[in-house]
Amino acid sequence: MHRLTLSTTELKRQLLHDRYRLLAIAASLFLILLGTDVISGWILRTPALIPENIHMVIATAFCLILYGLALPLALWRPQWRAHRVLAALVLAMATATLLEHLSGRSLGLDLPQLHVWRHDMVPHPGRMAPPTALALAALGCGLLLQPGSTPPRRRAVKICVLLPLLLGVLGAVAYLVNLELLYSWGASVRMALLTALGVISAALGLDALRRQALRRHLRSQDMADSISVTATALLISISLATGLLIYRVSSAAHERSLSTVMANSVRQRAALLVAQFGISDDIARRIYQRPSMQKLLEDASRSKLDASAAATELAARNHMTLNGIAIQDAAGRALVQVGYFETRPRQALALRSPAGSWLLWNGHYLYRTEAIYRTSAGSSRLVIEQKLEMFDRIVQDTAPRDGLSGLYALCGHDDHDLRCFSQSPRDPGPTIPIAGNIHHFTMWPAFSGKSGSMHTVDYSGRDVISAYAPVSDSGLAFSYKIRVADLLAPIRHDLEIDALIMLAMVTLGTLILRWRTSPLLREVLQSNRMAELAAERFRNAAEANMDAFIIMEALRDHIGEVDDFRVVYINAEAERMWQLRRNETIGRNWKALAASLNVSNHFESYKQVIDTGMPLSEEVPKAYDASHPTWIHQEIVRAGDGISISVRDITQKKLAELDLVLREALLKTVTDSIPALVAFVDGDQRYRYCNKTYTRLFGIAPEQVIGRNMRDFLGDESYAAVRPYVEQALQGQAAAFEMEMFLHGSQRYVEGRYIPQQHADGTVSGFYVMIWDITQSRAREIELRNKVTQDAMTGLLNRAAFMDILGDEIKHHYLKRQALALLFLDIDHFKQVNDTLGHATGDELIKIFAGRLRQNVRGTDHVARLGGDEFVVLLVGLDSERTATAVVDKLMAAVCQDAKLLGERRRVSTSIGVAYAYMPDITPERLLEIADEGLYQAKAAGRNTYRLMRVG
Asked: In degrees to the nearest 10, what's the CA dihedral of 700, 706, 710, 712?
């Protein structure tokens, strides 16, 4: 289930921001619903959903539906211009209706056949009222002019809003207070309540469109004026609503009280007439039941009536309440008559009960009854006509006078006409055809036995309050009606005085309100002016900015998620960059705009800034076109519930960077292919670049080298070795070196070049490093050298190498005034070992002997094998002869030890000839000969000994 993610503050701000759009949508929905319900009510002949909907005619309802459809089209798709077509239809229908009223001719818009079932639609069933037509015509004109692109058009649209709004409010007020009953001109402005509400809603919808189209920042004075006007309008509205409410309540209470009194009065009068009928019926019954009268009636039925006797009897029965009494035969011919019978009444009506009774009126009321006497011989009648004097007096006492419109009516009806008795001797009493007029008869419900009151329009077209009651089961009905205009006439003067007082109170309240709010408004005005100044500066800066600048507001869906953005502002650079027109762009949704411009849609980046509140800076393609690539740099910052975007075209910069990248890539490809360590070290002795040879050589990725200090990477010992060359390079001088270094766990022999990066001003920002690992070539060089200077079997120096070294050392010692000693050795009885044990064993013995020699001399001394079992040892840097003999004794002790040969231990000994020279000034060959002479003497002395020969 979706959850609402908008906070209350954001929701309020969003509703405030979209208030005009929401008002237009609400007005549209209301107009469509209202018009549809009215039309369905007329077609179905039922009030349907909305009360009193059929008080609006079909033409008005159709115009409201068209207007309700036009409002959203003008709001969402103004470029389609479809709203103007609908507005033109509304204007045409309203104008045609006005022409009908002016000319008195029908143009076929009234549809009277659909309205005839409502009898109160007079005199032109289905015709739109003039104020309604005028209001709809103004609304149609306003929508045709929308949006107002020029000041005159905007003023015209504003007039088209105010006129229908004024007519609708005035029509609603006239309807609510029955203004036509107070003033004659009230009928010309009166509208049905739903019609007035529809006109007001349409005017508010048009005003919402007008304000939505403006979408401008209000000036401070505009805001202050708006506050004052709003407060004044609110005060007037409250006062007007309060006055209307009080008037409606009081007039309704007065009407209900009067209706109750009138209903009681009517019922009382009906009861009096019933009582009068009862008295008259009782008199007639007593006369009829007298034996003498029965005898006369029987004689009359047998045609044996004695006229003189009958006249005497009837005269005896006649008294002041009787107008006349007569006996008639079966054919209705008078046999005998006493008194006067009304033969030409101005109104006469047969009653349903009792049978044969009539009510007559000829300036006064008469009640005539007929009693039929039947015998076997025939029948006769007793006709009695009585005066209703008591009822006449009541009628005279309640007759209209002093200009009052209160009128009692006693009526009955036959199959064709409604017959009413007059209250005035000069009035013959109306006889009205029933056909088509039943709904105007205020007493008609009484003929069905009902009693009550109603507020209606009578047969004369007057707005009346009527009470009605039946007169028992006689078929007569009483009604009492008073014109509402006469009822309200006494209070009209008081109402006008109250209206003036209310106007004075509203005026005074408005002045007090403005007086009390002026300081606050001045502060708000000052603050807004400062804000306007800041906004103006911002707009000027934005327009002068070389970057494109856009402000957009967020559009959210029903669950509060950002669904799109709407453009609120763009500067001139944005118009140029995207080839836009500001008036056509502002108000459009971003997704649709981006699609129409065929540019990349960065909606997700915009949404991220809205959701997180964190600004975003990114470089993105402006359009994906491989043949003409373009890039922009955009800075996105949240601004309320929207974003501001600063966009710069960085195509040239990106192309330059791309060219640099390509060059760097080419250089990197070249340097990576070089079998040397290539790097750049800055002035702080930190690596800023290195090639892939570092990875191949040390197993370290370039990323792990870049940024590191030379001392950290090389280690203290290796850094100390290259430090002089580093300092030389940073001073702007190229440096070259060749040395053995210990790098990352291995001993390597390298050749290096440090080339300074020197600028035109002479400053050095770093140096390039080129290092060749020549460890293997150095090893091969040493190996080749060793093959020339070393003995292959023992690894000692060979004769040639030794002789070179000997010459060098003789010169060195001579110059340094130092002593050296040359020892000439061979293995005693070596030939015997070769002969007895074999040459391989002899070679093994030679290796053992050579190892013992090497292990027992200093590192600075030189040991060589001259050939066979002959060895030489050169002791250098001696300080005395005694040092030389000590070394000889040590060698004798070390060498003359048994050796294990072919699993047997064999005694080994040597004979040594020593040539000791201090500051030697002798050739190497001569020094070797002297040592050889000493060896010969040692062998002659019995071997396993040495002989010392001094030189010089």
From this structure: -60
Parallel/antiparallel/unpaired status of strands 548-556 and 431-433: unpaired
- Report whether pLDDT(567) > 50: yes
Q: What is the DSSP string of 418-451?
A: EEEE-SSTT----EEE-TTTGGG-TTGGGGGT--
Model pTM score? 0.44
Give the integer Cα–Cα distance in Å for 609 and 658. Answer: 29
* 735-743: strand order across its sheet: 687-690, 677-682, 764-773, 746-758, 735-743
Q: Are 444 and 432 in contact (CB under 8 A)?
A: no
Q: Which positions ≥6 away from 291 have C-beta within 8 Å? A: none
Helices (H) and strands (E) in the chain, counts: 29, 29
869 is catalytic: yes
Rg, Å, the chain Cα set: 67
Whether residue 697 contacts residue 674, with contact meaning beta carbons closer than 8 Å, is answered with no
What three-state secondary structure class fits 943? Answer: coil
> Which H or E element spans position 720?
helix 716-730
Per the DSSP assignment, residues forming a β-bridge with 550 are 570, 645
**Residue 530, token pair as written in the block:** 């400062």
The order of strands in the sheet holding 819-827 is: 862-867, 870-878, 819-827, 910-918, 946-951
Whether the Cβ atoms of residue 297 and residue 309 lie closer than 8 Å to each other: no
Q: Please tell me whether residue 39 adopts helix, strand or coil conformation.
A: helix
In angstroms, the CA 573 to CA 647 distance is: 9
* CA nearest to 796, candidates 849, 875, 834: 849
Write the burial class of residue 586 (CB in 10 Å: 0-12 exposed, 13-18 middle, 19+ buried): middle
Q: Comparing C-alpha atoms, which of 274, 272, 273, 261 is closest to residue 467?
A: 261
Q: Distance (Å, rounded) from C-alpha 190 to C-alpha 130?
A: 10
Q: Which residue has the higher pLDDT, 390 or 222?
A: 390
- Amino acid residing at 6: L
Coil vs helix vs strand at 546: coil
Rounded Cα distance between 476 and 192, Å, is 36
How many CA atoms does the CB half-sphere of 296 hold within 13 Å?
28
Spatial distance between the Cα atoms of 258 and 486, rounded to a whole number of angstroms: 13
pLDDT tens digits, residue range 360-413? 888 888 888 888 878 777 888 888 888 888 777 777 766 655 444 567 788 888
E strand or H helix that includes residue 564: strand 562-570
Q: Please write the tens of the pLDDT for every residue from 172-189.
A: 777 776 666 666 666 677
For residue 496, is pLDDT > 80?
A: no
How far is the C-alpha of 605 from the C-alpha of 636, rounded, in Å? 8
Q: Alpha carbon of 639 to those of 608, 668, 749, 767, 865: distances in Å?
A: 13, 45, 64, 48, 93
Cis preceding linkage at 519, omega within 30: no
Q: Cα 728 to chain center, whole Å?
A: 67
Quote the pLDDT of residue 785: 64
Q: How many angstroms separate the CA atoms of 419 and 370, rounded?
A: 21
CA 781 to CA 466: how far, in whole Å? 138
Q: Which two tokens stand for residue 186?
A: 């009230």
SS3 412: strand
d(C-alpha 11, C-alpha 19), whole Å: 12
DSSP character string of 838-879: -HHHHHHHHHHHHHHHHHTS-TTSEEEEEETTEEEEEEEEES
* 910-918/946-951 β-pairing: parallel
CA angle 556, 560, 563 (to 5 degrees): 35
- Give pLDDT, residue 330: 80
Q: From the candidates 773, 861, 869, 932, which is the catalytic residue?
A: 869
State how far the Cα of 24 lies from the Cα of 30, in Å rounded to an integer: 10
- 566, 552 in Cβ contact below 8 A? yes
